[in-house]
């Protein structure tokens, strides 16, 4: 009898693994059919490669460049031209890619760590927990974010990590609201009731069943947040609140503005701006692709 039970348990485990594998393969199949999603994934991968391999692609721009080549338009020697001190704009853009991706990922991580637990607990338990959790979320949603980010950056410092933390602290409310909405719908499902009836601990229900099934819209929201984080970092750096010891796309634009060549030396502002646009669109397209691959209703449209 024990052997029969054991064999049945093994059979169920195999069935679960097959189901998970089929779901993953179905998602990959649906995602490959989404043109915008594939474009976004390709763009993110390319930018990740550039960011990781930045030391191999170009030298870190520092000090003064070739003074005889100041404000030169794109040439075979300087692909993106040079700035007012003769430094290569191409080198600056490459290293700026690394900074922008770093800020995006740190922001997303902070938004997940804060927003997901608040959304899960508020949606699952309701009552006072929901009132407090959503009350704090609504307060953050009504705050004047840009002035507060400027003040915090001026107070705690303008390091890249500080900027990423500041942006992350104001990026979690949307994650919390999305997570709560999904949790409210999922906790009414029959399999949640069944898990409660058999005595499954609540923390397992919340994190294994509710969070797992609520993950698709969370992933979509995270992709959007990363794009917004890149724009926010560029904006703060353009205002002079970036890290002066490193390069970001906003810092390049700020240098062009400070030296008064942002219009005359068109290449100085064009290439970092194109980098920002490509990265933001890539994250947004990736999020759209994930959403449509996981949502049958959207695929039918």
UniProtKB/TrEMBL annotation:
Assigned keywords, A-Z: Cell membrane, Membrane, Transmembrane, Transmembrane helix, Transport
Membrane topology label: Multi-pass membrane protein
Subcellular compartments: Cell membrane
Keyword Transmembrane: yes
Keyword field contains Cell division: no
Pfam families, A to Z: BPD_transp_1, OppC_N
Membrane spanning stretches: 35-57, 102-125, 145-170, 218-241, 270-291
SUPFAM superfamilies listed in its UniProt record: MetI-like
Domain ABC transmembrane type-1: 97-287
Primary location group: membrane
Gene3D superfamilies found in the cross-reference section: MetI-like (1.10.3720.10)
Family the UniProt entry places it in: Belongs to the binding-protein-dependent transport system permease family.
Protein name per Swiss-Prot or TrEMBL: ABC transporter permease
Organism: Virgibacillus byunsanensis
């Amino acid at each position: 009898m024990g052997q029969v039970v054991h064999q049945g348990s093994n059979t169920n485990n195999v069935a679960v693994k097959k189901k998970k594998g089929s779901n993953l393969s179905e998602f990959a199949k649906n995602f490959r059919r989404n043109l915008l999603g594939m474009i976004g994934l390709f763009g993110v991968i390319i930018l990740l490669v550039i960011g990781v391999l930045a030391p191999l692609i170009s030298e870190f721009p520092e000090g003064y460049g070739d003074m005889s080549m100041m404000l030169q338009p794109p040439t075979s020697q300087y692909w993106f031209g040079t700035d007012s001190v003769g430094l290569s704009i191409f080198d600056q853009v490459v290293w700026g890619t690394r900074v922008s991706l770093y800020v995006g990922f740190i922001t997303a991580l902070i938004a997940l760590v804060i927003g997901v637990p608040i959304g899960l607990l508020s949606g699952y338990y309701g009552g006072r927990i929901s009132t407090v959790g959503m009350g704090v979320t609504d307060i953050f949603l009504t705050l004047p974010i840009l002035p507060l980010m400027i003040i915090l950056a001026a107070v705690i410092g303008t390091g890249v990590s500080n900027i990423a933390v500041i942006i992350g602290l104001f990026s979690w409310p949307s994650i919390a609201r999305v997570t709560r909405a999904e949790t409210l719908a999922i906790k009414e499902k029959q399999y949640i009731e069944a898990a409660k009836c058999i005595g499954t601990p609540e923390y397992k229900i919340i994190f294994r069943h509710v969070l797992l099934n609520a993950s698709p819209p969370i992933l979509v929201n995270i992709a959007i947040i990363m794009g917004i984080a890149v724009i926010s970092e560029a904006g703060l750096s353009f205002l002079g609140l970036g890290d002066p010891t490193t390069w970001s796309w906003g810092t390049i634009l700020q240098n062009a503005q400070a030296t008064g060549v942002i219009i005359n030396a068109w290449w100085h502002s064009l290439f970092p701006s194109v980098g920002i646009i490509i990265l933001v669109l890539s994250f947004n397209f990736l999020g759209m692709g994930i959403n449509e691959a996981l949502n049958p209703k959207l695929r039918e449209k």
